[in-house]
Write a structure and sequence with these properties.
28% of the residues lie in helices and 22% in strands. The protein is α+β, with helices and mostly antiparallel strands and 357 residues long.
Length: 357
């Protein structure tokens, strides 16, 4: 058990984490209590904190207009996926009102009274809906300053009464929009690899979808913690809607680069399994979210796309391997992959490295 001396008191991290989780109040509850210093379980190690300071940036994440000619869009998406692993899209077909409504509804959920939210607080995903703070709370070295509402979108939505009423209609609409957008993106990404348009879709990569609505309240000590630690995403693809506050950063050529909010845009990033299936043509890159120093909360909504055929074998597409370019990864089942992801800390690219030949 990790213990250390903290003044006159013995600090027991395991016990403190357990107490925080059992309180079911989340980070927002801590802020509402009026604290002026973050609890010790949220303080990150010096090697993380020393890397938070802003640096001059000249790199801009690509923004791609999906209304352009198909061949141009395919080329732009493929180039961004190879060089950055992240890009933003505009003219994607999702109405601005739908985007505003889902952001507002997720904010509304998190800003309900604590006693209303606590009935959703659980680390079990049995109902398809749960409210938590830090998915890796019991595995991480330090907790991060955010709360999350998780909702399973596919293959089928949860029973509607399980979804909080304040965001129920908005989640149903967002599911329809992001399912259609995901299918379009998978087609563009497949073509960008020289494959048939439906190649990714046919591996069931559109079927299993999970939505997370993150809420980053003001942090009284943003230089001591993070909103979301550095990690790569599991799965195939992530579609992210962020509000205007900012804080998302990606690692590009060894430096942290801001993904600045673009009005009306949606952020897209390649996840680990797509890097593997593309045989390293596309890149899944580390990203993080800084703790929010603003008095206004930051809200973001990610939809993770995963394969639903959990016992099928996944690895580099055979069309992308040859004697000149052999497979760089061994095959694995999706179940094995996801089990490994959810029993570790969110940290860097350990899973793609695990399956590397």
């Amino acid at each position: 058990m990790a213990t250390a001396m903290n003044g006159e008191n013995r600090y027991d991290r395991v016990e403190e984490v357990k107490r925080f989780d059992e309180s079911k109040i989340g980070v927002k509850g801590l802020v509402d209590s009026g604290l002026t210093a973050i609890p010790r379980i949220f303080i990150h190690p010096p090697e993380t904190l020393s890397d938070l300071k802003p640096k001059p940036q000249s790199v801009v994440i690509p923004t791609i207009d999906l209304s352009g000619p198909q061949s141009v869009v395919v080329e732009q998406v493929a180039r961004a996926s190879r060089s950055f692993g992240f890009f933003q899209i505009v003219n994607h077909g999702i109405p601005v009102q739908v985007m505003d409504r889902i952001i507002g509804s997720i904010r509304a959920f998190h800003e309900q009274p604590t006693d209303v939210k606590t009935r959703f607080y659980s680390r079990s995903t049995q109902t398809g809906v749960n409210f938590i703070s830090n998915i890796d709370l019991f595995h991480s070295k330090a907790a991060s300053w955010r709360d999350t509402l998780q909702i399973k979108l596919g293959p089928t939505l949860p029973e509607l009464e399980e979804i909080p009423k304040c965001c129920r209609e908005e989640v149903v609409d967002w599911n329809l929009e992001t399912k259609a957008l995901g299918e379009r993106l998978m087609g563009l990404l497949s073509e960008g690899l020289g494959l048939d348009t439906d190649r990714l879709k046919n591996t069931t990569c559109l079927d299993s979808r999970l939505m997370v609505g993150h809420y980053y309240p003001r942090c009284p000590q943003p230089d001591q913690t993070v909103g979301l630690g550095s990690h790569t995403d599991p799965g195939v693809l992530t579609v992210l809607l962020q509000d205007h506050i900012g804080g998302l950063q990606i690692k590009h050529e060894g430096e942290w680069v801001d993904v600045k909010p673009v009005p009306g845009a949606v952020v897209i990033n390649i996840a680990d399994v797509l890097q593997i299936m593309s045989n390293d043509e596309y890149r899944s890159v580390e990203h993080r979210v800084l703790a929010n120093p603003s008095h206004e909360p930051r809200v973001s909504i990610a939809v993770f796309y995963n394969a639903s055929a959990r016992e099928a074998l996944y690895g580099p597409f055979s069309e992308l391997t040859s004697p000149e370019k052999p497979a760089l990864y061994r095959q694995f089942t999706y179940n094995d992959y996801m089990t490994r992801f959810f029993t570790k800390e969110l940290d860097g690219k350990t899973l793609t490295n695990y399956y590397k030949l």
